């Protein structure tokens, strides 16, 4: 009898310890879309497509309305998300191409490497874009496994109509077929739009399998969908199902994918112990017209420092901890995800300087205001193009892309013009579209933000003013 009682007490202690471990080490899932604009789902204003699962996450979690990517292009945005650092501090710029000679330095700590060290099982599925070949694939940056593509799926020798490029003057014609990696090994290559149409489903199925396999221990899943970046491709089960064409079909499939993740979390009864973050790497590539998304009314789009380029959707769900049906207007960036996740999981921060800030008290409702007041909008190689300070945004003189030209149709890109942008001050509380320059009315605000510009130039440098930063690190250099 006594022996049975001792065994019962021991079992209860083990059970309590297991539950305590679960509560102290939540699972973490980041779903990062590619080129999904601020207005591309119903919680952020989409019309014409029902996004039931995005709606569900917004209803069960909190919707952020002033969330920005650190830069409005693929490689730099993803570097910022995974390292919590301005990408130009890491020596990275733009979007890596097959011939690029740089990669994210493996000495940089990532969300994956930090969580792996803290006992997490880690996996990445989808688009990487921080190194084109081994040893610069995700398994060298803290991910236990990787299945996906090394860069954007338009980096291949196929035009936007799906035909092989034969023009010798077009550098794209010399690019290889789109490789699909399993770890460090190429296991497939894609040369058709039909092949690309299977990507969303393939990554989703593997995400569900990973969650099932690791439900009993803490895990980190980074699901980086290549869509809705062009060329658009939807599987047969979704093609032709929306009322707004192929772009709508792709959004429907991404919504289905999110639903599959929610379903398996429910089935395995781990939803309450899972911090789920859904966002995008940058705004829409607007010159593709009906094959591009919506910036939600913000100015311009991808590859610009206007709000349409960097302001992206961000939904956070953590049942019982993050406010349900919440709306948060605090200035936040994708750099802030790393320190926030480390705080939520009890994992350590990187040893090297990062630029992200801990928003966990905001997520948990323990603080009304976030810690971030400033965002530096860098672009190009290292151009300081604008600065956000609270509700103010000072745009500095710089050359910029503009989509105020002829848009494309049905997958054919339109023109992108170049303009010289003058100095301007915008009050985003009253002018979210950045239409009305008020610098003459608020010279004291301009002067205050220019002090911040000097701090940025000293720290990170600025090619526009020929400044070299004091605290910039080197990327990895490929042989």
UniProtKB/TrEMBL annotation:
Family that this chain belongs to: Belongs to the sulfatase family.
Secretion signal, residue range per the UniProt entry: 1-20
PANTHER family noted in UniProt: ARYLSULFATASE FAMILY MEMBER, ENDO-4-O-SULFATASE
Annotated transmembrane regions: none
Matching SUPFAM superfamilies: Alkaline phosphatase-like
All copies of domain Sulfatase N-terminal, residue ranges: 26-347
GO molecular function: arylsulfatase activity
Keyword tags: Hydrolase, Signal
The protein, known as: Arylsulfatase
Pfam families assigned to the protein according to its UniProt record, in alphabetical order: Sulfatase (PF00884), Sulfatase_C (PF14707)
UniProt xrefs under InterPro entries: Alkaline_phosphatase_core_sf (IPR017850), Sulfatase (IPR050738), Sulfatase_N (IPR000917)
Domain of life from the UniProt record: Bacteria
Entries under Gene3D superfamilies matching the protein: 3.30.1120.10, Alkaline Phosphatase, subunit A
């Amino acid at each position: 009898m006594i022996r049975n009682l001792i065994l019962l007490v021991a079992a209860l202690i083990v059970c309590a310890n297991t539950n305590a471990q679960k509560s102290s080490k939540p699972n973490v899932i980041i779903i990062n879309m590619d080129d999904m604009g601020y207005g591309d789902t119903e919680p952020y204003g989409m019309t014409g497509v029902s996004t039931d699962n995005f709606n569900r996450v917004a209803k069960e979690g909190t919707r952020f309305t002033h969330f920005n990517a650190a830069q409005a292009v693929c490689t730099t945005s993803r570097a910022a998300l995974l390292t919590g650092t301005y990408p130009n501090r890491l020596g990275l710029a733009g979007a890596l191409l097959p011939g690029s000679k740089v990669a994210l330095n493996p000495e940089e700590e990532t969300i994956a490497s930090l969580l792996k060290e803290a006992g997490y099982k880690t996996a990445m599925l989808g688009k990487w874009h921080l190194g084109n070949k081994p040893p610069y694939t995700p398994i060298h940056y803290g991910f236990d496994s990787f299945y996906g593509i090394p860069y954007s799926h338009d980096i291949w020798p196929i035009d936007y109509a799906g035909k092989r490029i034969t023009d010798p003057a077009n550098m794209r014609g010399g690019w290889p077929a789109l490789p699909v990696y399993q770890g460090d090994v190429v296991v497939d290559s894609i040369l058709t739009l039909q092949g690309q149409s299977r990507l969303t489903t393939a990554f989703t199925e593997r995400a569900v399998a990973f969650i099932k396999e690791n439900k009993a221990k803490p895990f980190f899943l980074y699901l980086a969908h290549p869509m809705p970046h062009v060329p658009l491709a939807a599987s047969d089960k979704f093609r032709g199902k929306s009322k707004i064409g192929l772009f709508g079909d792709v959004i429907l499939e991404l919504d289905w994918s999110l639903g599959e993740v929610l379903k398996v979390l429910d089935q395995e009864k781990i939803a309450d112990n899972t911090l789920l973050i859904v966002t995008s790497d940058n705004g829409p590539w607007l010159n593709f017209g009906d094959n591009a998304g919506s910036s939600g009314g913000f100015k311009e789009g991808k590859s610009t420092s206007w709000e349409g380029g960097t302001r992206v959707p961000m939904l956070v769900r953590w049942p019982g901890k993050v406010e349900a049906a919440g709306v948060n207007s605090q200035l936040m960036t994708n750099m802030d995800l790393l320190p926030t996740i480390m705080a939520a999981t009890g994992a350590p921060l990187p040893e090297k300087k990062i630029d992200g800030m801990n928003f966990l008290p905001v997520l948990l409702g323990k603080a009304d205001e976030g810690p971030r007041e400033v965002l530096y909008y860098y672009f190009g190689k290292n151009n300081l193009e604008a600065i956000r300070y609270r509700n103010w945004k000072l745009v500095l003189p710089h050359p910029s892309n503009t989509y105020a030209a002829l848009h494309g149709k049905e997958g054919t890109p339109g023109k992108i013009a170049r303009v010289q942008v003058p100095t301007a001050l915008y009050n985003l509380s009253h002018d979210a579209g950045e239409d009305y320059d008020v610098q003459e009315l608020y010279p004291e605000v301009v002067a205050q933000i220019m002090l911040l510009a000097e701090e940025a130039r000293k720290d990170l440098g600025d090619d526009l003013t020929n400044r070299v930063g004091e605290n910039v690190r080197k990327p990895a250099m490929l042989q």
